[in-house]
């Protein structure tokens, strides 16, 4: 059975405290025993020395009078806490025994009397007549300084151990009560920990953290989490990239949000406390973004905010691509409508019998259009691309600009390195820019020359105009997002998309002046997606 984190923590705490108390109990037992033996050794020695110095006892021992010694020592033994008091003569024979008077006349047991008879006091633990004891022996000397007897005061080790055990038991009872209190505390403590981590196991928390980190780094939007003091807690890679921050996340953690993003109303304290906001247009460090802000609440207490944002230009770019597709459809619809009008007019002329006028009308209206239609439909396999080129030609003609397609134009198969939508975006943006540049030039407007050719190695797209050209101040930045010469509407995306798609396909772009005026854009895109060269952009001005 697999135990939960709460039970594992509880068992660990219980085991730790139990082992700790057992170790402390063992240490206390031996330490208390050691101290008690030291104390009793000193007490036995003091009593033995005091008894040995008593004049009456010295006289009685020198006279070798056991009865007098018995009467005298009975009173002293009655007031002593020693297990036994023994008086012996110089030959090691009992003169008095406080516990067994009948032993008077027998020899002392222990074999440690020699040092005492030499005039030394000793303290030993030996087995005597009563058992193992801690005893102190002191010589009895007469007035001449001769050893005439021995005083032995002792405590049985069983008695000393019982005293130590009594102390340990008292401490043990207190320790058990304390341990029970610790068990109860540990149980409620582990329950509290479990509740605070939402009943998750450590492994689940670790997995959740790793999943959250991976998710944060995989999100395309910028994400920043700040605490109540507006300090950064989490910032993902997308946020650092959009804000132009080179520092790693760990260096930004703990910094104020105002030191990372220039102060603005989006971070106004009052507004942040009162409400959340979604898709608010802001400027973060000179970057226009759509930002959202959501409060983090824990038990009705504000803990911080989650801020998400994305580059508005990315949204605009997607909008532009969708708009292009819509324009292609509109262009086809226009051409279809014009063709229906022409067919209606032609039908009317034929119905009225004006055959000569019908022939002249057909020749006038369809000669160029049919040639263009036949050329485009026979040289390009994609209906979408054909529709784009026909629509651009029609729109250009409406603006007074002609498109001149090179006879070498041809795309007879799909291009692995480019999606069709990307190819449409590239050609459409190039033609739009050239048509507009030509329209802004002085009259008469010269045709925009177009070459779109797919050979075995690469796709070549070349668009040459005789328009106003590229201003020198923006020539080096024309492929950057937002760089444009147009003053109305949202622009600066077309060339950025072209450069993005071509670079992604591993192609190159060349931009040169078209003498005496205008610009030539030439794109080289590898035909094989698996053999793409290193992308480059050349300015051959």
TrEMBL record:
GO terms for cellular component: plasma membrane. SUPFAM superfamilies: ATPase domain of HSP90 chaperone/DNA topoisomerase II/histidine kinase (SSF55874), PYP-like sensor domain (PAS domain) (SSF55785), Sensory domain-like (SSF103190), Sporulation response regulatory protein Spo0B (SSF55890). Gene3D superfamilies: 1.10.287.130, Histidine kinase-like ATPase, C-terminal domain, PAS domain. It is a multi-pass membrane protein. SMART domains: HATPase_c, PAS. InterPro entries: HATPase_C_sf, HATPase_dom, His_kinase_dom, PAS, PAS-like_dom_sf, PAS_fold, sCache_3, Sensor-like_sf. Its main location: membrane. It is found in: Cell membrane. The chain crosses the membrane at residues 9-30, 168-189. GO terms for biological process: regulation of DNA-templated transcription. GO terms for molecular function: ATP binding; phosphorelay sensor kinase activity. Pfam families: HATPase_c (PF02518), PAS (PF00989), sCache_3_2 (PF17203), SPOB_a (PF14689). This is histidine kinase. It comes from Klebsiella pneumoniae. The lineage of its organism: Bacteria, Pseudomonadati, Pseudomonadota, Gammaproteobacteria, Enterobacterales.
